Amino acid sequence: MPQIEVLDEQTIDKIAAGEVVERPSSVVKELVENAIDAKATAITVEIKEGGTSLIRITDNGCGIEAAQIPIAFYRHSTSKIRKVEDLVRISSLGFRGEALSSIAAVAQVELITKTPEQFTGSRYLIEGGKEVSLAEIGAPNGTTFLVKNLFYNTPVRRKFLKSAQTEAGYVNDLMERIALSHPEISFKFINNGQIRLHTSGNGKLKDIIYHIYGRDIAANLLEIHAEYEGFSVDGFIGKPIIARGNRNFESYFINGRYIKSTLIAKALEDGYRGFMMQHKYPFTVLTISLDGTLVDVNVHPNKMELRFSNGEILYQQLAALLSTRLRESELIPKVTVHEEKKQEKRPQIQPQEAPEPFEQKRLERLRAAVAKDSPYERKYPERNRPETGTSGQETAGQASVLREQITYGTEYPGSFPVEQKLLCEEKTDSSETQKQEKNGEVFFPESVNTDSQEVLAEHALQQTLFDAAEQKAEEQADTGGSDFSDADLKSKQEWKLLSKQARPHHRIIGQLFETYWLVEYQEQFYMIDQHAAHEKVLFERTMKAYREKEFTSQMISPPIILSLTMQEEVLLKKFLPEFEKLGYEIEYFGGKEYAVNAVPGNLYGLNGQSLLLELMDGLGNMSEKDTPDLVVEKIASMSCKAAVKGNQKLSRPEIEHLIDELLTLENPYFCPHGRPVIVSMTKYEIEKKFKRIV
Q1: What is the pLDDT of residues 205-254, one digit of tens each?
Q2: In what order do the strands lie in the sheet with 42-48?
Q3: CB 3.0 to 4.6 Å from 55: which of 23, 147, 164, 171, for a disulfide?
């Protein structure tokens, strides 16, 4: 019979390390969290070979006193808590006191640290859980950890690690999440000598999102801020247009801690239901601040899993918050023109030798003669730019001033040889020319082709206006719109397409492919999918009637007799109350047959028998975990088969009525399956496509 024995300390340490240190990213997580707890404002992480050969973490935090260093590497030694009651109100990221002992048990660790009160720092070496040395050393304030040869004494663990590139990817992903959770801290991540991440620590979360995910993501964000009893939510969520095929872009933090929670993930995805296509997941970066007494962090040594005492309330309010924020925003996808910008090479003016004095005097006399009665010499008083007006008026004002003040002899793309020659000649008297141009005076010899100059000026004007318009468009994309002094103009500009204020200004152009309706509104071109629009109207109408118990039934005579299989009978009995709420009246007819005496009143025109069977087939594919709300949405979604189809001719009054119906919906932008109902294209994009703007 096997004997029971107490394991030695080294074996115990290695077993405990297996729970905390799974891979190099686990080491980085524990040490970076310690640096954050030490009030560091700048943290640098460097790894080599995926973190297996070297992990170096440097911070400018409070440091560790020399006498405390060996104690820090004991199991369950910590400065974060003192007694069991402290576990109820944990405010730090670490508290278990297992990280340093677990890391030291499976690696060669070097620690260099100094507190602000000490004159010198300390250097501590520990390998495989055994102390090697402790000595004084010159060091800056803060702490540096060097973790070398991870799992050197547990080759089995090392064998199960993935490639160096994959392990480095795990560390990179972790550093991005931590940077998002603490925008007030500057993070730098270096992999094999290359800087992969560097944040400024300016506290601006959107800057970090832009730095990590790029312009497209940052330009499609909605800010979130809400406070509830016991918790608050801050951060950004993405518009449905940037939804992804997996949950990798869902980031959420509890009291500054990066976690993974099925409860929060479900709340996020339920909040987006109806705004995205199926099997798509939202982009979110949310910080949830909770009362420490409402959450239990002490579930697993990696502290990635939490338990909530108010989980149901958190789920409901978070899902409702996201759904409300999405409904408040205009989510019409924009069709953009993606074209490579062709860099037009400006003609290079080769420097020439200065002309002889005689030639210089001749040019001066020529300029004086031209200046006397030249139509190109123009002086204009300084014009005050109007303080109010729309962006279009502002651009128009710029155009008029540019047309009047354009310098015809200036170097422009596509200049003609005659202009280049003139420019070379005028360059000899640069000081005089610059002075004249500043005063708005421009001179040309009589031999210059005036038609060519007009073409040149117009080309320059178009180029300048294009640059101005493009800059203006980028500013509006970044700020969400222009600022106007006139309140009426501003409010008109901010009217959504699907709003009662904007409705009288819609101009319906016509129908395309007997499927899409074309609408013009405020220099925007909209295409409305008639099938998706009608489907959405029916879906919302069905759901509203279900919630308010206002369904009407349409009696049919003779009744529809259905012959059901045993599985279909089980489904019918299980969901019969839901069918009745929708307006169906079904009764047992004998044997395997059931009589359908009435169908929902707003679904007339459909084959009631096939519709009911399709509904039951769809419900049969649902899992047991689906909530009653999902059952209703499944029924309502399939009921949308009554919607008008594509390639079906609609009259103008019918589409007018359909648009009016869309105005009454909370979310008119996406059909029940997540496809867009409306897409838009700006006048600027259309003109760019036709090369009116080049």
Answers
A1: 999 999 998 888 898 899 999 888 878 999 999 998 888 888 889 999 98
A2: 130-137, 121-127, 108-114, 142-148, 54-59, 42-48, 186-191, 194-198
A3: 147
